[in-house]
Design goal:
The complex is a heterodimer of chains A (112) and B (113). By secondary structure, chain A is mainly beta. Chain A contains no helices and eleven strands. In chain A, a hairpin with a 2-residue loop joins strand 5 and strand 6. The radius of gyration of chain B is 13 Å and the shape is globular. The termini of chain B are far apart. The relative contact order of chain B is 0.34. Classes of the chains: A mainly beta (112), B mainly beta (113). At the A-B interface, strand 4, strand 5, strand 9 and strand 10 of A face strand 4, strand 5, strand 9 and strand 10 of B.
């Protein structure tokens, strides 16, 4: 059983395009997150949703727009992709804000 | 904001030896300290965590210690095995930040047979 799943696993696209990454969790958690891992492996939180409401919005360009249609899904839409957006994006979920976060397998985004 | 420093950045150990990774944090409001293991091509996975009201926690070959006064915590892996080879991340969460994990820069651990 996959706890946190993401699609696609790989995404290669041209600069200026718009793309979306989807995330689903079947753990019944109420909080979901998006993290970005750069080429040096550094992990940084981007967004967090609790019960479909945005609660963390780090300093992320407004080209990035998360959407949570329900508690089990958190999608990430990126407009006007730039070279610097190339990274691995991880979705995660937890029950509440101070419990274990379960990470998805990641989406490797490459912008050419 | 919170600053989490992690050392060393790389660690090579002989199979069977122990590995120790250390992290320091700056914000005294931090109260949850998880450690994640990331294998190549996979997402981070929690291996052990500790809360601020506990000084030490152990799970088989893995242990974590926390010194709140000095604001540092450490991961100890005993009897290392080749499958322990991975990148390990420490992280903190502050009491007033909902799930906002602040990660250290990671430690690449290589266990040689």
């Amino acid at each position: 059983d996959t706890a946190v799943s993401q699609t696609p696993k790989y995404l290669v696209t041209q600069m200026g395009n718009d793309k979306s990454i989807k995330c689903e969790q079947n753990l019944g958690h109420d909080t979901m997150y998006w993290y970005k891992q750069d080429s040096k492996k550094f992990l940084k939180i981007m967004f967090s949703y609790n019960n479909k409401e945005l609660i963390i919005n780090e300093t992320v360009p407004n080209r990035f727009s998360p959407k949570s249609p329900d508690k089990a899904h958190l999608n990430l839409h990126i407009n006007s992709l730039e070279l610097g957006d190339s990274a691995v994006y991880f979705c995660a979920s937890s029950q509440g804000g101070t419990s274990e976060q379960f990470f998805g397998p990641g989406t490797r985004l490459t912008v050419l | 904001g919170e600053n989490v420093e992690q050392h060393p950045s790389t660690l090579s150990v002989q199979e069977g030896d122990s590995a120790v990774i250390k992290c320091t944090y700056s914000d005294s409001a931090s109260n949850y300290f998880p450690w994640y293991k990331q294998e190549l091509g996979k997402g981070p996975q929690l291996i052990i965590d500790i809360r601020s009201n506990v000084g030490e926690k152990k799970d088989q070959r893995i242990a974590v210690t926390l010194n709140k006064t000095a604001k540092h915590f450490s991961l100890h892996i005993t009897e290392t095995q080749p499958e322990d080879s991975a990148v390990y991340f420490c992280a903190t969460i502050k009491s007033d930040s909902w799930g906002k994990l602040q990660f250290g820069a990671g430690t690449q651990v290589v266990v040689t047979p």
